[in-house]
Amino acid sequence: MPTERLQALRDSGELPRFVAVEGPIGVGKTTLARRLAATFNYETLLEQAEANPFLERFYRDPRRYALQTELFFLFQRTEQLRDLKQNSLFEPVRVSDFLIDKNALFAEVTLDEDEFQLYQNVHQHLIIDAPQPDLVIYLQAPTSVLLQRIGKRGLAHERAISAEYLDQLNSAYARFFHFYDQAPLLIVNAADIDFASNDDDYQQLLSYLLDIRRGRHYFNPRPLAG
């Protein structure tokens, strides 16, 4: 990606000022968020899953620890956004690896009916006005690919994640983004993309997303000639 083009978009105000990268566990959203932030010279706003003391217990015993896990994440993300607002940083120039709008997506998958009602009540009292992204990138991949990537990165709190749970998340994400229209949306087939070590994959995606201003778009990486 030529530096001149990025600078021209920045100078003209056409570079997206707030990009949110989303997708199920293991799909590569944090890796992509970090690369985009480095390219744009933006701050990052990242999930802090390792700070959730209930998460590893949830993966071992979902029924017992679901409510504690989801409430902790809700409090954590609300506090992140509140801190940004208090620090006068709410004119966003950043890349995030989560979209606050999807918080209830996980809760709906993991909680029973009564717990979900309680979660929604808490959510309504806690949630603050969140900035809408200029661009949302939704990464998709089959459950088998997610399991391989989760196993490869070897995080302790993810060892007990089941294929059944990932299937449920994939379905929930697909339903959520089928109706999402709050910001320009780029849906990426990430099954064969390696943003960490394949620069060609990243440059293709970067070139594509820089032209997005509105609507819904789809990206499949092109095989390189030769």
From TrEMBL:
SUPFAM superfamilies the UniProt entry points to: P-loop containing nucleoside triphosphate hydrolases (SSF52540)
UniProtKB keywords: Kinase, Transferase
Residues of the Deoxynucleoside kinase domain: 20-207
Keyword Transferase belongs to the record: yes
Domain of life from the UniProt record: Bacteria
InterPro entries per the UniProt record, alphabetical: DCK/DGK, Deoxyribonucleoside_kinase, DNK_dom, P-loop_NTPase
Single GO molecular function: kinase activity
PANTHER family attached to this UniProt entry: DEOXYGUANOSINE KINASE, DEOXYNUCLEOSIDE KINASE
Protein name (Swiss-Prot/TrEMBL): Deoxynucleoside kinase
Organism whose genome encodes this protein: Alcanivorax quisquiliarum
